[in-house]
Amino acid sequence: MEATAYTAQSLYTWILDESSNFLLLDVRNPTEFTRFKVEGPKPIDMLNVPYMEFVEFEEASVAKVPKGKPVRIVCAKEGSAKFVADILLNNGFTDVGFLAGGIKSWGNMLVPKLLADNGYQLYQFIRPGKASCSYGLASGGELMLFDPSRNVDFYQQFAEEKGLAITATFETHLQADYIAGSNSIAQATSATFLAPPDDFKDAQYEYTPAQDGDIYGFTQPGPEIRVLHTPGHTPGSTCYLIDGTYLVSGDTMFIQSVGRPDLGGKAEAWSKMLFTTLTQIIGPMGNSTLILPGHFADWSEANEDFAVVDTLGAIRNRNAAIYAINNEADFYAFIRDNMREQPPEYAKIRLINAGLSVVDDEEAEVMDLGKNECAASAGK
Amino acid sequence: MSNTKVDLELDLKGLACPMPVVKVSKGIKEIEVGQVLKAVTTDKGSLTDFPAWAETSGNEILDTQEGDGVFEFYIKRTG
């Protein structure tokens, strides 16, 4: 019997399907396992038995793996998962698979969700490995992207399958937690790269400044995209309002909590900016506005369809304690009380995203993995 | 660590996971307790995998050197 390869997409499907009763066996070392592991919208029966334990103590390690259900193994790249799969098959296990491409294929995977189909199509691309979301707006054969990840092949393939040309790619801010894809997409296609100048003024590449009040549209009549400067998470942070209804909110606001204004080392000044944004710009918006966030912290933020979107009204209720704050000082106190360390790689990712630092593909891959730490409060 | 007396050297350059750990696990059994094995790898994963293996197998990594994409491990057999 041979172990079979499975894809990250299949793994996501099995996690959603409660009838698929399988064990996820992660054989990476405990350090890597603790730093980043598979998470999904449903509970996963998961076990970490590092492959070095199988090398040293084969019998005892095999005994740790319960028999009777399919075993799906994950490792860093693929080799160790295959290695352990063969050991299990030699020890009486029958249904054993290994994740093709290793944990990074899970980390990079994007799941498209159709959010709106009103003459135009609005897609959310969820990246379960990062708990982040990018967006695609299609109209008249054109596709505009918002905050794409570095998985450029995915977006190009998606556009090709739908018969769309990528014409524009927008960034909401200079990202610190993942390597942004807009610059690569602009280079690989003829798409215009739009970004807020306050965050990108030092960038070492060409981009078109997206200024507050600007309106973008498609070649053919279609939905319009309004640029709203919403500083706070970063000084340049910008939201894009699509068709007056859908707000691509970046890291300004999430389903749960708001964006951290402390990542730039100026927590007090940026908190004030964020408070002004939430009260003056988001404040007057109607409860029916749909918020399309850049991240989520937990799958409890997803709806019954496993999409991460909600109305502004529901978000105001859910985060009543934050939205009830009516002065800068109390808002900063709330931020300060919830402040925590930021992952050490964020400083470097910012430089890469501005084109101020260049790393090889493998290093980029490693830095890009791991869940985001962008919400101001982690509590439920 | 250039002064350390090395009793066995393994060239594991170019090998991908899990082979460096598999080879080191074998190699350490070829030397006596108290002797030192030097392993040279190019797999970045060995930077966290070797310490995890050492802890599992009860051996001691004396030193790790990094340079030009090559990693050198000096491992004392203690287990």
Describe the protein in words.
The complex is a heterodimer of chains A (380) and B (79). With 380 residues, chain A is of the alpha/beta class. Chain A has 2 domains: 4-105, Oxidized Rhodanese, domain 1; 110-368, Metallo-beta-lactamase, Chain A, CATH 3.60.15. In chain A, 32% of the residues lie in helices and 21% in strands. Chain A is built from 15 helices and 18 strands. In chain A, the strands form 3 sheets. A 7-stranded mixed β-sheet of chain A has the order 6-7-8-9-10-11-12. Chain A has a 6-stranded mixed β-sheet with strand order 13-14-15-16-17-18. In chain A, a hairpin with a 3-residue loop joins strand 6 (111-117) and strand 7. In chain A, helix 10 crosses helix 13. The longest helix of chain A has 16 residues, at 267-282. Chain A is globular and about 65 Å long. The termini of chain A are far apart. With 79 residues, chain B is of the alpha+beta class. Chain B has a single domain, classed as Translation Initiation Factor IF3, CATH 3.30.110. Chain B has 2 helices and 4 strands, in the order E-H-E-H-E-E. Chain B has helices at 19-28, 46-57, and strands at 8-12, 36-41, 60-67, 70-76. Chain B has a 4-stranded mixed β-sheet with strand order 1-2-4-3, with helices on one face. In chain B, strand 3 and strand 4 form a beta hairpin. The longest helix of chain B is centred in the middle third of the chain and has 12 residues, at 46-57. Chain B starts with 7 loop residues before the first strand and ends with a strand. The mean pLDDT of chain B is 94.
